Give the backbone structure.
Amino acid sequence: MLFTIDDALRLGEILSRAAQAEIMPRFGALAAGQVREKSSRFDVVTDADEAAERAISAALEAAYPRAAVVGEEATAEDESLLDAIGTADLAFILDPLDGTKNFASRLPLFGVMAAATMRGEVVLAAIHDPVCRDTAFALRGEGAWLQGEDGTRVDLRVAGAVPVNEMDAIVATNFLPEPRRTIVNGNLSRLAMSSWLRCAAHEYRMAAAGHCHLLFYNKLMPWDHAAGWLLHREAGGHSAHFDGTPYHPTHRTGGLICAPDEASWRLARNALLEQAQPSTVDG
C-alpha cells in the first residue's frame, strides 16, 4: 500500500485521542503505585504509558487489521515483537508516552510517537504533543510538517549549516560506554550550546523545525528514533550512525547523529568523537 496524507492525519488523530483520554487526565495526578521502575530509576513506566498503548494499539489494529503493532510496553513483555519491524509488510512502531520521567515529574515535556514501516523501511511518522495538542508529521518523499488541532499547517525545515562552534545541540551521553562517554563530554565545549530534554519526541521536533542544529544519541530503541529519524530526514536533514552508515529501524546500536547536511554531520562527528590530542610545550 501507499500511504497518503489522509493516512498521516488518521494516525495523528489516533495518537491525539489516546493522549487526551489516557495521558492528560493522569498528568500531575499519579499516585505512588502508578509509577514503576523498569531497568533503572531513570527508566520508568506509568499507568498512562500502559493505558495509552492499549488504546492506540486497538485503534491501529481496527484501522489496519493486517498490520503488526510493536509497542514499547508490549515489547518489554515479549521482545520477539521486534522481529516484525524488519519483516512485516506493514508494522507500526509505537512509543505511547515518550519522556515518561518528565511526565512522572510533572514536567509538561512529553510526547506520543508512532512510525509506520513497510518491510523495514520507515514510510510515515507522527509525533504528537499532548500539551500543545499539535502533531509533527512526515511522509516518505512528501516532506514534514506541523499541524495544529485547528488544521493549521506549517512546513518543517532543519536549521541552516553553521560552524561547529555555533551549533546548538541535543547530546545524550548517558548510554555511552567508557571511554567514549568521557571523550564526548570533554568535547562539548566545542559546541555553542548543548542540552538534553529527556524526551526524544520533542528533541526531534526541535531539530526538524530548525530550533537546534544537532542531535546525538547512542542507544537506538526503535520507538525512540524511527519516527523522529524520518521527520528529520523529510525536513531536509542528514543523519547516520557514528561510522557513517545509514540508520535502519532494526538497528539498536551504532549511535546516531542528525545534522543539517552531510558536511555538518562530518564536522560534528569529528568534533564530538575524536579524542583531543594533548598539547606539547617546547622546553
User: Anything to note?
Assistant: DSSP finds nine helices and 14 strands in the chain. The CA atoms of residues 3 and 267 lie 35 Å apart. The first strand starts at residue 35 and ends at 40. The mean pLDDT is 94.
